Amino acid sequence: MSSNSNLTNMRRSVEQLKLEASVERIKVSQAAAELQQYCLQNGNKDALLVGVPAGSNPFREPRSCVLV
């Protein structure tokens, strides 16, 4: 029984390795250049970089309500 379990685990490992070997890879320098280009193109839309307009900020301090 132990040898069947071991054989099954080995087959799963081989299938996983085949799957990982078939993944398309690119050079780190190419990935870094593409990431830099993406950041430069989309940086003006990033709320962490440009801030959130006060009117549309869901986390702004609540206004106080005063009854007169």
From TrEMBL:
Organism field: Electrophorus electricus (Electric eel)
Described purpose of this protein according to its UniProt entry: Guanine nucleotide-binding proteins (G proteins) are involved as a modulator or transducer in various transmembrane signaling systems. The beta and gamma chains are required for the GTPase activity, for replacement of GDP by GTP, and for G protein-effector interaction.
Entry GO MF terms: G-protein beta-subunit binding
Superkingdom of origin organism: Eukaryota
Bilayer disposition of the protein: Lipid-anchor
Quaternary structure (record): G proteins are composed of 3 units; alpha, beta and gamma.
Keywords, comma-separated and alphabetical: Cell membrane, Lipoprotein, Membrane, Methylation, Prenylation, Transducer
Family annotation (PROSITE patterns): G_PROTEIN_GAMMA
Gene assigned in the entry: GNG10
This protein's name: Guanine nucleotide-binding protein subunit gamma
G protein gamma domain: residues covered: 3-68
